[in-house]
Amino acid sequence: MPKSTPNKPRETKSALVRRLLSRKVGADLAALQDATGWQPHSVRAALSTLRKAGYTIDRLPPKSEGGLAVYRIVSAPVET
User: Fold this and answer.
1) Is the separation of the CB atoms in 57 and 74 below 8 Å?
2) pLDDT for 17-63, tens place per residue?
3) Phi, psi (5° rounding) for residue 36?
4) Which three-class secondary structure state does DSSP give residue 28?
């Protein structure tokens, strides 16, 4: 009988977005799209959902002309 290995839980795409946005450098829209496979409107909807959940998300302007804005979580919701 083959040995079974315990399955570790998969990271959800929403959790992946939170993890990428929690990094010190944040993430731009293209990086979030690449990581999740989502369309731009879906990534923006996820950002909106995080804001509604109580996360504060900073939008940093592009570093160069024609560059992409960077998003970063600066505070998480307060748990009561």
Assistant:
1) yes
2) 999 999 999 999 999 999 999 999 999 999 999 999 999 999 999 98
3) -100, -25
4) strand
